[in-house]
């Protein structure tokens, strides 16, 4: 935007307006860089989720069962953690002794969100593969294939205006809440075994 110069002002040498223009191809380069970033992020999520299914097949099944059995509770717990964890982190950091705990909470927060998203993809992938296999047991390899397909589908759905974003958001919340319930069930079962 051209500068407004007061009529009473005196400028030695005069003033020249030259609009700032982006270098040719900069806009295209920015779009390409953004797309490449999304692709690398998707690949990273694929690797993380595949390792999750490969290394912890039973526990991911427990998380999925919690998600299926109590979807409303999963979403509510997920929302509570989504909102509550940053608040808890800030409260911890009010005191000097609580700063390490607050930093730990903020460090773990992205991990919690990632696990919730990956859980939603595993859930969708397993159900899709079970439907295709007509209810037969799924091997780990098939679960990973289903997960990768579901992850791509979630990325495409999330690109849809409003509805797509809301759907992915609720699935994310459900995934976070399912992790909480599965961890509680595992802890409770372990506590009973130890007591016995």
Care to describe what's here?
With 196 residues, this protein is an all-alpha fold. The protein is built from 6 helices and no strands. The chain has helices spanning 26-55, 57-69, 71-92, 99-132, 140-158, 163-195. The chain is extended, with a radius of gyration of 25 Å. It starts with 25 loop residues before the first helix and ends with a helix. The relative contact order is 0.13.
SSE inventory with pairings:
Blueprint lengths: L25 H30 L1 H13 L1 H22 L6 H34 L7 H19 L4 H33 L1
| Quaternary organization | single chain
Low-confidence stretches: none
Rg measurement, Å: 25 Å
| Approximate strand percentage | under 5%
Q: Secondary-structure element sequence?
A: HHHHHH
Summarize it.
The protein is built from 6 helices and no strands. It is mainly alpha-helical and 196 residues long.
List keywords for this structure.
196 residues, mainly alpha
């Amino acid at each position: 935007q051209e500068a407004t110069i007061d009529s009473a002002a005196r400028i030695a040498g005069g003033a020249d307006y030259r609009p700032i223009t982006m270098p040719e191809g900069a806009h295209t380069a920015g779009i390409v860089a953004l797309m490449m970033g999304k692709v690398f992020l998707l690949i990273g999520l694929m690797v993380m989720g595949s390792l999750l299914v490969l290394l912890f097949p039973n526990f991911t099944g427990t998380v999925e069962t919690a998600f299926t059995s109590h979807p409303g509770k999963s979403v509510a717990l997920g929302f509570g953690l989504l909102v509550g964890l940053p608040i808890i982190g800030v409260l911890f950091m009010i005191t000097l002794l609580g700063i390490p705990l607050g930093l730990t909470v903020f460090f773990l927060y992205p991990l919690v969100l990632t696990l919730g998203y990956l859980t939603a993809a595993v859930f969708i992938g397993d159900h899709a593969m079970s439907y295709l296999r007509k209810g037969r047991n799924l091997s780990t390899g098939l679960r990973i294939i289903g997960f990768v397909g579901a992850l791509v589908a979630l990325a495409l759905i999330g690109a849809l205006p409003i509805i797509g974003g809301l759907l992915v958001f609720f699935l994310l919340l459900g995934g976070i809440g399912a992790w909480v319930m599965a961890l509680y069930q595992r802890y409770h079962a372990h506590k009973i075994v130890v007591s016995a």
